[in-house]
Automatic annotation (TrEMBL):
PROSITE patterns: HTH_DEOR_1, HTH_DEOR_2. The keyword S-adenosyl-L-methionine does not apply. This is Glycerol-3-phosphate regulon repressor. Residues 3-58 form the HTH deoR-type domain. SMART domains: DeoRC, HTH_DEOR.
């Protein structure tokens, strides 16, 4: 692996394991301790990781997301189960918004077999998957193209959404917690997500537990703005209890 590939591997590995020792990385990548430490220093300078005793862990202050095709591989079993459950919340005849994301893509695969639905999305992968489903009405927001995440973002996409009425919106995020609410490291995503809270009758966060406790620079909204959260059972019980005290429905999907 070249230096860039090594750093991508380390960052990807941390999304699966949260923390890793330097000695483990040396064995996994088959390079010297010095090389690993040099890669770690660069990742720290980029704000992606922080050092702990004998190793590193993800920085909870999220500054950058993984590309779509890499995110799709992480916690896939959890995302598939969450997506399947979330799809069951959709009623026939509804106008449904699917936010750009790999969990909402899992939802799209289930909804693709449904009838009498209108699907709105800013995600190109979802659009492509549903393109050959004639029984569904399909709308794409358009807007500024986010090439890393195969989606559209920014004011143009938000303006389109504000011309619509949505029955239920499924919202994705890379970072959320009780203190920071839903957040993102990318400013251009904020307008799209905030528009959904204006136009959707029911707002549902779909996210696996690995994203809880992280936060990005840009705040979208507090969790109290949501009607529902769909997450997996690895979300800490203390957090589950606190969420249940908010005016929302928490759906825990056991994997």
């Amino acid at each position: 692996m070249n230096p860039s590939e090594r750093r991508d591997f380390i960052y990807f590995y941390l999304h699966e394991h949260r923390a890793v020792s330097i000695s483990t990385l040396v064995k996994l990548i088959s390079v010297s301790h010095m090389t690993v430490r040099r890669d770690i220093r660069i990742l720290e300078e980029e704000g992606k990781v922080i050092s702990i005793a004998g190793g590193i862990q993800l920085n909870d202050a999220l500054r950058q997301e993984l590309p779509w095709n890499e995110k799709a591989l992480i916690h896939h079993r959890h995302k598939r189960a969450i997506g399947k459950y979330a799809a069951s919340l959709v009623e026939d005849g509804q106008v449904v918004y699917l936010d750009a994301g790999t969990t909402t893509f899992e939802m799209a695969q289930v909804l693709a077999e449904r009838f009498n639905l209108t699907i709105i999305t800013n995600d190109f992968s979802i659009t492509q998957h549903l393109m050959n489903k004639p029984q569904l009405n399909l709308f794409h927001t358009g807007g500024q193209v986010d090439k890393r995440n195969y989606s559209c973002v920014g004011n143009s996409a938000a303006m389109v959404l504000r011309t619509l009425n949505v029955d239920i919106a499924f919202i994705s995020t890379s970072s959320w917690d009780l203190e920071h609410g839903i957040s993102t490291p990318h400013e251009e995503k904020v307008l799209v997500k905030q528009a959904l809270f204006e136009i959707a009758r029911r707002k549902v966060l779909v996210s696996d537990s690995s994203k809880y406790g992280k936060y990005g620079m840009f705040r979208v909204c507090p969790l109290s703005c949501l009607n529902d959260i769909v997450c997996d059972g690895q979300l800490p019980m203390s957090v589950q209890q606190q969420l249940k005290e908010l005016n929302m429905d928490l759906h825990i999907v056991n994997i």
